[in-house]
Amino acid sequence: MKSRNDQFGETRSILVTKLQIPVNQANILPRPHLHNLLNHALDKNVIMVGAPAGFGKTTIISEWVKTIHLPVAWISIGLEDNEPETFLEYMLSALAIIDDKLGLKSRNLLYSPNPPVLEKIFQSCINEIAMFSSELCLVIDNFHMMNHPQIQQIFAYLLEFIPSNLKIILITKTENLPALKRLKYTGKMVKISKEELRFKGHEFKQFYHVLKKLPLNELELQLLENKTEGWVISMNLFAQALVEDRSMLYEKDQFSGRHPYIYSYLIEEMLDYLDDSVRNFLLEVSILDELSCSLCEAVTLKKDAAEYLQLLFSSKEMIKLIPERNNQWFRLHSLLREFFYHQLVNKYQGNIVHLHRRAYTWFYTQGYISKAVNHAVQANDLDKATEYLWNLAPSLLKNREYNELAYLLNLFPNDWIENSPHLCIIYSWTLALQKMWENAHTYLAFVDRLILKMEASLYEKFLIELHVLRGYIALLEQKGDECIKHMTTAAKMLPKYSEFYHMGVEILSPEWNVLGSDIAFGGQLASTCTLYGKLREIWKNSGLPIVGFGAVVLGAIHYEWDELDKVQYFAKRGMYIGKKHRNLGILVPSSLLYARMKRALNNDDEMWQVIQQLEDSITDRHWRTTITGFKINILLEEGRVDKAVKLMEKLEQMPATGMISINQIRVLRASGKWTKALKRIEPLIKQVELENRLAIFIELMILQSLIHFEEGNRSKAFTIINQAIRLGMKEGYLRLFLDEGTHMKKLLCDFQKIVSTDQAVKEYCSKILSKFEHDSIDEVVVKTDLPYLDDLTNRELEVLKLLEKGLTNKEIAEALYITVGTVKLYNHKIYSKLQVKSRTQALIRAKELRLIDY
Questions:
Q1: 720, containing H or E segment
Q2: What's the number of CA atoms in the CB half-sphere (13 Å) around residue 483?
Q3: Measured at the alpha carbon of residue 281, what is the angle toward residues 276 and 283, in degrees to the nearest 5?
Q4: Distance of alpha carbon 53 from its chain centroid, rounded?
Q5: pTM summary value
Q6: What is the pLDDT of residues 594-643, one digit of tens each?
Q7: 662 and 639 in contact (C-beta within 8 Å)?
Q8: Pick from 328, 47, 335, 54: which is nearest to 175 by CA?
Q9: Distance between the two ends of the chain, CA-based, in angstroms?
Q10: CA-based diameter of the chain, in Å?
């Protein structure tokens, strides 16, 4: 095909291969979800596939057009084609491949000795397409190269008056072109972006396992997906590299934008045509993991940083918007960032410190202290980084952000940490709150050495921190005397209190049963009450949040002793301090304690009001888990099992706590799934016994005895409840028994009848029973009236009556919605209690005892 150059009167050939649909390799991974997306997009006249180089745009479109059963005209544009006449010539030639008569009139106009202006030829072309007998598809690959103003103008005209039978597919690296701007708001265009083109999840796995035949494990796949971000060219490049060396996945320098294959591609395909000013901008911001206009201005000292970001985002799409940051923050693709940072280190080492200093100054003034610490360390301003972290650490500890603290501490050199009293104190708190007390003592020993060289004011400041922290660790280690000694010593000094206590570090984990926690000695009530009484004297009038934890623990102890007037005082005190200091570790447990007290006083409406107000005000997911677990217990006590089951399903999706396991056991018990409940209890009992958590141990034993009692195993139930009472009476436990309600009352009533030798247990059992309200007890057993026979439960009587009707075991199971195995178990218990050996003998004995009618 020939075209004429009006300026020089020459002709030049059109490259026919640019009009051919690209032929892909045979081993292409099918992507049916993208085909479906494109099929639905055919409802519109224009489909724009926009993404940076290497996202497989051309590959997916060339595969898809083979399936759509429409005639396709394809143009692959090059930079040399960025002339209006050349572009028009390619377009008309592509249409002629569909039908040589299509565009014939327009071609004649173009090649005529005195051709009209190009706009007229375009109008003619539009008319010819509109009169074509069927729908057709025009694909323009590399449309971003057509940035000549006249091409954009005439193409905008085509898009505005596009014939209804024409589908245009634009493959482009950018949508920031004049011809496309107006189209965005007309409803005629569908955009397929890089987000749709990325390989994710199962498709990502298939790419390496099926297509590349690389048997990578889940960890290796996750590493690759995080690094490549589903960018298919980088996936291919890494696949090529992995064939040669699988170990590169674990080598930081190799598994990055520095790798030779990645480096070469980035230079040749993506970065070669960037202006020097843009390259310099990217070099300087490569020290940042996230970008904003203000931050980039501060770091690069460029007032037009916003223009660079917009250029990169809209034109080259090398940066990605971060939606969760209010669409005001961006980040570089990880490979690009690594590439530029590597260049920065190699060529401009002297500038890096200045860039990091500007970064940490900006982050600190904006309140992003964690990032300020990071950049201060990178700038080797370790004193400044230490100062920042000392100010930040209490709030991170308060919010239980231990991983974040550990990450920031690990940024510092070890020798710097061991010679910094500030960092050693932070490390000790972080370790102590995670129960790594031995390691915490190691860092405290470093402080002991360092403070000897300090001036008097600093010496006393750190001595207070040492005593407070050692006192706290002693508290967790259940060393009451040592705890009092250290806290008393600290209180005699000035400024008297730890900076970490001023912030209100949460020393209570998200559990509503405070007595099972370390700060309550696992439930040793008497010694804990004595200890906190002394600590209250030390901390009184301090106004510190730590006083609130004492109120929570003392309130929980008095609740267990059924001293509800004292509970009200401590619970309200805890709620006040928790709200004042915004400390959830005080507010939530004290509020739930107050709610529990209201239920004990039969004020259920007030109880639910407290729970609802608390739930409405708490967003922390760990403490919401605690509140949900508390609600499940209350619902079960009220007999609303179905609602409790639904809430339990929700709870199991929340962050795990120790109380979730007990909630699960309670729900299983209430649902009649006794065998499953008992299986759950057994390992948990062993665990809490090893951890010396007495309160939880007694609670689990109580649950275990109730389940055995309800399934008819009275002797087992009595053995376990006897042990629970023995343990409970030593510390004065009452409410653990009382809160189980009428089921516990029935169990204790029957248990008391068989207690003969142990007078102390019998008396304590009577004490518990005397605390119950004197309401009637629904009989759960049917009396045999013979002293040598055990009583039958209601369920056993149900089974007996169905046996009398002649039902088989299978029929009884269906009638009672239980398994055949459970029916056999009931049969065995009935025979045992009636002292018979067969069904016939059981029925005769039951009729003799008038348990069933003759």
A1: helix 714-731
A2: 22
A3: 95
A4: 32
A5: 0.59
A6: 999 998 888 888 899 999 999 889 888 888 888 998 999 998 888 888 88
A7: no
A8: 47
A9: 109
A10: 124
3-state secondary structure of 2: strand
Q: What is the mean pLDDT of residues 331-358?
A: 82
* The amino acid at 364: Y
Q: State the pLDDT confidence band at 780, using cuts at 50, 70 and 90.
A: very low
Please give the Cα distance from 500 to 554 (Å, whole number).
Answer: 22
**Residue 439 identity (one-letter amino acid):** N
DSSP 501-521: HHHT---S-S-S-GGGSGGGT
Q: What is the DSSP string of 293-325?
A: HHHHHHHH--TTHHHHHHHIIIII--EEE-GGG
| Contact (CB, 8 A) for 98 and 136 | yes
pLDDT in tens, 39-86: 988 888 899 998 877 788 888 999 999 898 899 999 998 877 888 888
The token pair that represents 763 in the structure block: 């008396």
* Residue-wise DSSP of 190-245: EEE-HHHHS--HHHHHHIIIIIS-----HHHHHHHHHHHTT-HHHHHHHHHHHHH-
Copy the structure tokens of residue 330. 């961006």
| Cα dihedral sign, 685-687-690-693 | negative
Phi and psi torsions of 732, nearest 5°: 85, 25
Q: How far apart are CA 536 and CA 552, in angstroms?
A: 12
Q: By three-state DSSP, how is residue 342 classified?
A: helix
- 578 in Cβ contact with 548 (< 8 Å): yes
Q: What is the mean pLDDT of the chain?
A: 83
Please give the C-alpha separations between residue 457 and each of 460, 461, 492, in angstroms, as whole numbers: 6, 6, 15
- Stated as kind and residue range, the H or E segment containing 330 is strand 330-332
CA distance to 42, 44, 458, 513, 733, per residue, from 768 (Å): 76, 77, 55, 20, 9
Cα 677 to Cα 700: distance, rounded to the nearest angstrom: 11
Cα dist. 80→13, 15, 144, 265, 564 in Å?
13, 11, 13, 22, 88
In 615-700, the DSSP E strands lie at none
Find out whether 523 and 694 touch, Cβ atoms under 8 Å.
yes
Output 682-688 pairs: Cβ under 8 A, ≥24 positions apart.
688/516
Sign of CA dihedral 356, 407, 506, 382: negative
Measured CA to CA in angstroms, residue 18 lies from 21, 63, 93 at distances of 8, 16, 10
Q: Are 767 and 738 in contact (CB under 8 A)?
A: no
Q: What is the CA radius of gyration of the chain?
A: 38
Both tokens of residue 824?
């056999």
